[in-house]
Design goal:
Layout (H helix, E strand, L loop, with lengths): L3 H6 L7 E4 L3 E5 L7 E7 L14 H17 L7 E4 L15 E5 L9
Antiparallel strand pairs: 1-2, 2-3, 3-5, 4-5
The structure holds 2'-deoxyguanosine-5'-monophosphate (DGP).
2'-deoxyguanosine-5'-monophosphate (DGP) binds next to strand 2.
C-alpha cells in the first residue's frame, strides 16, 4: 500500500488519532503549522477533491460535521479556525488522499496569501 494515509487507516503507520468512525479518521498533522493542526480524512481513498462525485455528497458533508465537532472538542470553535483542502500540485497538495486541514490556535493571514 503506497498511500501513507491508507497505511495510517490500516494501522500500518503510526499517527495520533483523535477521532475515527466507519467513514472518517482524524489525526494530528506530522508537520503542524498552527497550534491545532488536524487532518480529517475519508476512510475511502480519493486522490483529491477532484475525485469526489455527486454520490459522495453525504460523505463530504460528514467530513465537515466531523471537523466542526473536533473544533468544539479541541476548544477552538469560538475563537475560530480554518478548514483547508489543498487540491493538486499548484493547490499545495502533497499527499494524494483527500483530506481537510483543521487549523487553529493562531490568527490566520488572508486566505489568498
Ligand atoms: P497537503 O499538502 O494538503 O497534501 O497536506 C498533507 C499533510 O500531511 C502535510 O501537512 C503533512 C501531513 N503528513 C504527511 N505525511 C504524514 C504522516 O505520515 N503522518 C501525519 N500525521 N501527517 C502527515
Amino acid at each position: 500500500m503506497s498511500c501513507i494515509f491508507c497505511r495510517i487507516i490500516a494501522g500500518q503507520a503510526p499517527a495520533e488519532v483523535l477521532y475515527r468512525d466507519d467513514r472518517t479518521i482524524a489525526f494530528r498533522d506530522i508537520h503542524p503549522v498552527a497550534p491545532v493542526h488536524v487532518l480529517i480524512v475519508p476512510i475511502q481513498h480519493f486522490d483529491s477533491l477532484n475525485s469526489l462525485s455527486e454520490e459522495d455528497e453525504a460523505l463530504a458533508g460528514h467530513l465537515l460535521v466531523v471537523a466542526r465537532r473536533l473544533a468544539e472538542e479541541l476548544g477552538v470553535a469560538r475563537s475560530g479556525y480554518r478548514l483547508v483542502i489543498n487540491t493538486g500540485s499548484e493547490g499545495g497538495q502533497t499527499v494524494f488522499h483527500l483530506h481537510l486541514h483543521l487549523l487553529a490556535g493562531r490568527r490566520m493571514p488572508f486566505a489568498g496569501d
